Amino acid sequence: MLFALALFWLPGPPVMPAVTPSSTSSVSASAVTATIGQARCPWRYAEVTVHNGDTGQGRSYTLYTGGLFLRTEIIPPGAEVHNEVSLARGVPTAIKVVAANRTVAAATRTAGCGPAAAPAPGTGRPRKLPLTGSRAAGTALGATGLATVVAGALLLFYAFLWPRSGCGDWASPVRRTR
């Protein structure tokens, strides 16, 4: 009961603050700078580099991707942190770095790797699925299923039904003679 009440009072996941995304890739706020790289193919990620200047103290930053919280870290003075943000193929993804409640860097990246997300006009879906194996594989699977059913029937008969029918010398406690 106490656990359920604790879950009720816990705050939900943090949501990205409403700030209009800009196409700038490097702006400084509170001695923290960030650079958002271009989309890299074929791995579909963008590298985000966050650098803490020589402030003499650690600074925290928060990384948002697609409007959702991704990570919060504290960067030691003079250190640099490299993050890789996954991108969906052909879908624009908003990436934002926030430090000291101010947007340090914000950009939108699209992984245009390989074929586009939408099919070309007229190509559409194929009418039926391609054959991905030999017909012998399907026959073997069917034979295995049939053998399993036959083995189950034999086991049911010889282990459960036949001994209780009273036929056979070993099935009854008293030896029968006819």
Summed over residues and divided by their number, the pLDDT gives a mean of 76
Helix content: 10-25%
Shape: elongated
Distance between the termini: 71 Å
What integer value in Å does the Rg equal? 33 Å
Approximately what portion of the residues adopt beta-strand conformation?
Answer: 25-35%
Unreliable stretches (pLDDT < 50, length at least 5) are 1-8, 15-29
> What is the count of β-strands?
8
Protein structure class: alpha+beta
The helix-strand sequence is HEEEEEEEEH
Biggest pleated-sheet summary: 4 strands, antiparallel
Strand sequence of the main sheet, in spatial order? Answer: 1-2-3-6
Total of helices: 2
Can you put this structure into words, describing what you see?
- The protein is α+β, with helices and mostly antiparallel strands and 178 residues long.
- Helices cover 20% and strands 31% of the residues.
- The protein has 2 helices and 8 strands; from the N terminus they run H-E-E-E-E-E-E-E-E-H.
- The chain has helices at residues 2-9, 135-161, and strands at residues 28-29, 32-40, 45-52, 59-65, 68-75, 80-86, 93-99, 102-109.
- The strands form 2 sheets. The protein has a 4-stranded antiparallel beta sheet with strand order 1-2-3-6, with no helix packed on it.
- Strand 1 and strand 2 form a beta hairpin.
- The protein is elongated, with a radius of gyration of 33 Å.
- The chain starts with a helix and ends in a 17-residue tail after the last helix.
